[in-house]
Design brief:
Order of helices and strands: HEEHEHEHEHEHEEH
Structural class: alpha/beta
Number of helices: 7
Helix content: 25-40%
Oligomer: single chain
Largest sheet: 6 strands, mixed
Radius of gyration: 16 Å
Length: 174
């Protein structure tokens, strides 16, 4: 509904790149359809292992629209730490980009069952749907899994109801 309300207003800015609410809505809609075609079920976890980029919010919203759970992974972590987080969260799919290709290759060696979706390939993989993907509530009622690195490189995770955070943030906008 934000796209219909704010349309071409800026939803985000990264350097010189601008992202409108309409572009965010269209991108996340395409990705939600792609994730569903790939067999994402409500409650399935997808790792988002990206540097700051305009595709990042579309990836998050695309997973959420498809009913998935997002595990955001810090791109400064070592492949072994990323592998632990992905294993702990149960993610079988990871969204990444070409700049992290070296880490992706190491991750594939550590967890050969992982499927990688690169943002550079989204245009080829996705299509322009004629209808909007209906938001599917996640089966676990958790939209995001956050890992916090602790001493001795141990990580702890917690589930977050990301939709509530987004609704509150958006509802304060005038």
């Amino acid at each position: 509904w934000l796209a219909s309300r704010y349309g071409d207003a800026e939803a985000g800015v990264l350097g010189e790149q601008r992202l409108t609410y309409r572009e965010l809505d269209e991108g996340s809609n395409r990705l939600a359809h792609l994730f569903r075609r790939l067999g994402l079920q409500p409650g399935d976890c997808i790792g988002v292992f990206l540097k700051n980029c305009p595709e990042f919010p579309a990836a998050l919203f695309g997973v959420w629209r498809a009913g998935g759970v997002v595990t955001v992974i810090n791109n400064f972590l070592k492949p072994e730490e990323v592998a632990f987080i992905l294993s702990d969260s149960g993610a079988r799919v990871v969204i990444t980009d070409a700049s992290l290709a070296e880490n992706q290759a190491k991750l594939a060696g550590l967890q050969p069952e992982l499927k990688f979706l690169r943002i550079e390939d989204f245009a080829a993989l996705a299509f322009s749907p004629t209808r909007t993907a209906d938001a599917v509530p996640a089966a676990k009622k958790v939209n995001c899994v956050i890992h916090r690195t602790r001493a001795k490189r141990r990580s702890r995770s917690c589930g977050v109801r990301g939709w509530l955070l987004i609704r509150r943030k958006c509802s304060t906008r005038t």
